[in-house]
Structure formats: structure tokens, C-alpha cells
Design a protein that fits this description.
The protein is of the alpha/beta class. The chain contains 5 helices and 5 strands, in the order αβββαβαβαα. It has a 5-stranded mixed sheet, sandwiched between helices. The radius of gyration is 14 Å and the shape is globular.
Length: 150
């Protein structure tokens, strides 16, 4: 059902982008790779509004940017177990495959939001600005981890 890192890596020759997804309860942070899979760039944050509407919005972006695979941040607990949030991500990703058959990688995102928040604090961003960009920044952090691994 879900792809492995090795399977995702085989898509690199297509010269198409990957999309990183940080799925929250209220928002969906998105990031895009370049076609050489070198750099992940924060793209946008979508309001989460039900599986069908969110899936349609994602499909429009996938088509517009010629995305060949998705990388969902997979929030595993620090002890390696799956918690309620990881189950929500897995369920959303599984249902998304009913809308579009595309390779999906679940990527361990432990501490991604913490790392991104620390970076934003060091950059002296206001709390308001941090809230506006944290999801797409986390998606970029997650996607960059995959790009660095392939």
C-alpha cells in the first residue's frame, strides 16, 4: 500500500517533484521539492475541511506541479510506537489513495515541529508569524529529510 524509501528513490529519474505533507487536525502544511530533488521549499498551508475537499485541493496542486510522489510526515511516538495522531495520518493517506493512485511514503517526523519552531525563534519571528508558517515549514523539514536520504 505505502511506498518504501527505496521505491520513492526510483522516481527521481522522472525529473518531477515530490510533495511534503504535514497533516494537522486543522491545517495541512505543504512543501515542494525542486525537480532535481535537492531542496524542499515551503509551499502553502491549507485549511483542513474534510477528506473529500482536502483531497480535491491536493489533487489540483499535484496536477499543477506534476508531483510524482507524496511524503506524509508520520508522527511516531518517541518510543517508536504509533499514537492517535499517526493513526489519523495513516487513515487520511489510505483514503487519499481512493482519490488518486500515487506513491506515498510515511516519513518519521519526530521532533520536526520542535526543530522548526526553534529555528523560527532564533530567526526572531513573532508568535503570530510562527503560527502562520509552522505547518508548511514542518512539511519542508520532513520532505528535506527524504531528499537527503535518497
Amino acid at each position: 500500500m505505502f511506498s518504501t524509501l527505496a521505491e520513492i528513490a526510483k522516481l527521481k529519474h522522472l525529473k518531477k517533484r515530490l510533495m511534503g505533507i504535514d497533516l494537522g487536525d486543522k491545517t495541512i502544511g505543504l512543501s515542494l521539492s525542486d525537480i532535481t530533488w535537492t531542496i524542499a521549499t515551503p509551499y502553502k498551508t491549507l485549511e483542513r475541511s474534510g477528506q473529500e475537499k482536502s483531497s480535491r485541493e491536493l489533487i489540483k496542486i499535484i496536477e499543477e506541479f506534476q508531483i510524482c510522489g507524496l511524503v506524509f510526515g508520520y508522527p511516531i511516538n518517541m518510543n517508536g510506537s504509533e499514537g492517535p495522531q499517526s493513526q489519523k495520518v495513516k487513515a487520511f493517506a489510505e483514503k487519499f489513495l481512493n482519490y488518486l493512485d500515487i506513491p506515498i511514503l510515511l516519513w518519521d517526523e519526530r521532533l520536526s515541529t520542535v526543530a522548526v519552531t526553534r529555528t523560527m525563534i532564533k530567526a526572531d519571528l513573532s508568535r503570530k508569524r510562527q503560527k502562520e508558517v509552522v505547518d508548511k515549514m514542518a512539511a519542508s523539514f520532513i520532505l528535506q529529510g527524504v531528499l537527503d536520504a535518497v
